[in-house]
């Protein structure tokens, strides 16, 4: 069965620090990859996505992620975090070519940025 | 504005009572989904529907039921058979046959006393 692993459950950073959140998936075929963010009291929203092409994708608010097929990874990065980046981040995978569009989510990473 | 509306936002119920959560979308999406979010467990799929009058069980369907009589609506009933119903429930929709990108509602928090 497909699965998604996010190894960092809680991350605490100071403002201006660099961020990297790990995401690994288990599926041997073609995948579509997503990072979603949930700010306190708000609904889940798409941060960025990868379908094909350049494995380095850029999203909103200065976030980027790199798809490394050989490592089954899609890590999220930001060079300099801000207090407003405090949120929960979810990695998700859709196994392309399946009968349905089911997103499999990781367990989430709670990021707290200290001012 | 197009979007997904979930109601109620907060709901309290006694054990043994069935509860129905509403989800309406005006995005003209064919597919709709219900996820359950628990701390430390991420989002787990309860049910999904690709078209009207059709739906499939997700990974944790036991104790839940759904209907899809209209394209815009996908209500979820949490039955008394659900062992641990207190949770945050999220409804989502997507284009059928698309890339898998989901659009989410704001969620409904159910507390069973």
Extended strand count of chain A = 12
Give, in order, the helices and strands of chain B: EEEEEEEEEEE
Count of helical segments of chain B?
Answer: 0
Largest interface: A-B, 26 and 27 residues
* Computed Rg of chain B: 13 Å
Helix coverage percent of chain A: under 10%
Q: How far apart, in Å, are the first and last alpha carbons of chain B?
A: 36 Å
C-alpha Rg of chain A (nearest Å): 14 Å
| Helix-strand category of chain A | mainly beta
Describe the model.
- The complex is a heterodimer of chains A (115) and B (113).
- By secondary structure, chain A is mostly beta strands.
- Chain A is built from no helices and twelve strands.
- The mean pLDDT of chain A is 91.
- Chain B is an all-beta fold.
- Chain B is globular, with a radius of gyration of 13 Å.
- The A-B interface holds A 4, 6, 9, 32, 34, 36, 42-46, 49, 51, 90, 92, 94, 96, 100-108 and B 31, 33, 35, 40-45, 48, 50, 56, 58, 90, 92, 94, 96-102, 104-107.
Question: How are the secondary structure elements laid out?
Answer:
The complex is a heterodimer of chains A (115) and B (113).
Chain A: E1 3-5, E2 10-14, E3 19-21, E4 24-26, E5 31-38, E6 45-50, E7 56-58, E8 64-68, E9 73-78, E10 87-95, E11 104-105, E12 109-114
Parallel strand pairs in A: 2-12
Antiparallel strand pairs in A: 1-4, 3-9, 5-6, 5-10, 7-8, 8-9, 10-11, 10-12
Chain B: E1 4-7, E2 10-13, E3 19-25, E4 31-38, E5 42-49, E6 56-57, E7 64-66, E8 76-78, E9 87-94, E10 103-104, E11 108-112
Parallel strand pairs in B: 2-11
Antiparallel strand pairs in B: 1-3, 3-8, 4-5, 4-9, 5-6, 7-8, 9-10, 9-11
